[in-house]
Amino acid sequence: MYDSGKIIAGLVIFIILITFPFWYNHGKASIAPDRVLPKDQKECVEEISYMTSSHMQLLNDWRTSVVRDTNRIYKNKKGKTFSMSLTNTCLDCHSSKADFCDKCHNYLAVVPYCWECHLTEKGNP
Amino acid sequence: MNIAFSILTVVVIGLIPWIGTTAVNLQYLFGIIIPYAAVIIFLLGVVYRIVKWGKSPTPFRIPTTCGQQKTLPWIKQNRIENPSNVVGVIIRMALEILAFRSLFRTTRAELKEGPRLAYGGFPWLWLAALVFHYAFLTVVIRHLRFFLDPVPFFIAWLARLDGLLEVGLPVYMLSGFALFAAVSYLFIRRVVVPQLRYISLAADYFPLFLILCIAGTGILMRYFFKVDVISVRELAVSLAGFQPKLPDNGIGGVSYLFYMHLFYVSVLVAYFPFSKLMHSGGIFLSPTRNLANTNRAVRHINPWNYPVKVHTYAEYEDDFREQMKEAQIPVERD
Ligand code: HEM
Questions:
Q1: Least packed by Cβ within 10 Å: which of A27, A51, A85, B276?
Q2: How many contacts (CB atoms, under 8 Å) link A and B?
Q3: In this structure, what DSSP letter does residue B188 have?
Q4: What ipTM was estimated for this complex?
Q5: Do B233 and A27 touch (CB under 8 A)?
Q6: Parallel, antiparallel, or unpaired: how do β-strands A81-83 and A73-75 relate?
Q7: Are B203 and B274 within 8 A, CB to CB?
Q8: What is the mean pLDDT of chain A?
Q9: Beta strand pairing status for B116-121 and A81-83?
Q10: Alpha helices in B55-99 (DSSP H)
Q11: What gap in Å lies between CA B134 and CA A115, rounded to an integer?
């Protein structure tokens, strides 16, 4: 091989870069985040599989509905009604943001910007 | 024909994991075995291709005609276009790799009024290529949030920057759409320009469609048919930690979309070493870019010269010393 020193150095850098996740994690088992579910409640706004994957879309619909259409009442698939509010409804059942929302979000490095304005505790400050 | 063939291929590639994870439960195959196999093929294939290239002799330095080479002290040298030392070469390579400098030179011939033939700059290909590559890079770095445990701090920053518009929930990531748009342009370009269509082969369309399908399924998964991203991370971290395990409750949502995404990526990664995509390794080995123009300053010996048998003067003298002395020819050694 010609210029083998340089080419091999380049290949070594390439392989280290590509296999970086393997070095970085070395043998760590993957653990799902242990979020605390509400004890006194049985059901979320919608069914759980929908909530786990699509709760942000629900929040988006709620926000649009409240802010643009001034409609604050949400009726779920089962006909139960909820007042559409991030702090007063979601955080009513999921009382600790740190033990619930943040557990998942930190796990995936998602940083919702909602809390710049919305309160994480109920009531007027 | 080439287009139809490529479309058919990506459709079939998409159907395989769809059938494989809905009609039959082959999640283990599509989620674990195929991705590992693809990474192994990728690494071995790239090393093989580069070593094979490395074995071909480096030619005589090819000076580029776009810059004045180093010559008499009062003639100004173009140090980046026509470098004569390592620093210049590094700058030239860096600009080529990071800014696609030679692609910026793309020109287009146009028939103007007159009729007069004019060659003008054509920055669109360069721009689309630049957008495409950087969007791809951004998307891939953002995807590391699935694989790395713990997630490094800069990934959240990058996501913040990428979602700067704060539109929609989940927040729209600009790079994903930029990637899709740029690849679409690169494809349309090949179809619309007749000369380009004429020279385009299935090997040109196929990678474009593959990337289009990857970005397409990704966008569908993020904004329309949500999957359970927590489970995706569980799977990805387990793959990266060499303790592969499918998440207990599956991927959730319309999970076949995830398996399609992953299978397209696996096919791309495994196909990579055998395709034109190897230009990413090849660019480092392009002789018109990575060799300093020292043609006149340094003696270059052609690497494929056979060893020339030489007979030195000293040996000649040894052969004929007696005769030379007899003929009174001066000798260097007695
Ligand atoms: C060549 C590599 C890949 C490319 C170019 C790619 C591209 C994309 C794009 C453009 C999106 C749309 C959302 C966004 O902009 O972030 C996306 C989403 C997604 N991709 Fe990939 N992808 C790749 C590899 C992978 C791999 C290996 C996995 C497996 C872990 C994966 C899993 C996902 C998931 C789960 C989503 C949805 C993300 C969400 O809902 O936020 N991708 N991908």
A1: A27
A2: 115
A3: H
A4: 0.89
A5: no
A6: antiparallel
A7: no
A8: 87
A9: unpaired
A10: 86-99
A11: 31
Instruction: Name the CA dihedral angle for B61, A6, B282, B134, rounded to a multiple of 10 degrees.
Output: -120
Report the nearest atom of ligand 1 relative to the CA of B265: 1
Spatial separation of the C-alpha atoms in residues B240 and B35, rounded to whole Å = 11
pLDDT tens, residue order, chain B (334 aa): 789 999 999 999 999 999 888 888 888 899 999 999 999 999 999 999 999 999 888 767 887 778 888 889 999 998 888 898 899 999 999 999 999 998 998 888 888 888 888 888 888 999 999 999 999 999 999 999 999 988 889 999 999 999 888 888 889 999 999 999 999 999 999 999 888 999 999 999 999 999 999 999 999 999 998 888 888 998 999 899 888 888 876 666 558 899 999 999 999 999 999 999 999 999 999 888 888 888 888 888 777 778 888 899 999 999 999 999 999 998 888 7
Query: Which residue, B27, B22, B13, is CA-closest to B212?
Result: B13
Architecture of the domain made up of B2-326: Up-down Bundle (1.20)
With tokens 């409804």, the residue in question is A89
Nearest Cα residue in chain A from B164: A113
Pure H helices in B30-173: 34-54, 86-99, 123-147, 153-162
A11 vs B50, B149, B226: nearest CB: B50
| pLDDT one-digit tens code per residue, B23-69 | 888 888 999 999 999 999 999 999 999 999 998 887 678 877 788 88
- Domain segments of chain A as ranges: 52-123
**Residue boundaries of the structural domains of chain B:** 2-326
pTM of the model: 0.90
CB atoms A53 and B226 under 8 Å? yes
Nearest CA in chain A to B248: A32
Are B255 and B247 in contact by the 8 Å Cβ rule? The answer is no
> Which contiguous run of DSSP H or E holds residue B117?
strand B116-121
- CA of B307: how far to CAs of A46, A59, A61, B310, in Å? 81, 77, 78, 9
The Cα–Cα gap between B37 and B239 comes to: 12
First to last CA, chain A: 72
What sign has the CA pseudo-torsion B33, B36, B38, B40? negative
- How many CA atoms within 13 Å lie on the side-chain side of B304? 6
The DSSP symbol for B309 reads P
Q: Any idea what DSSP says for residue B285?
A: G
The DSSP secondary-structure symbol of A3 reads: T
Asked if residue B229 has its Cβ within 6 Å of ligand 1, the reply is yes
The amino acid present at B126, given as its one-letter code, is W
Burial class (CB in 10 A: 0-12, 13-18, 19+), B97: middle
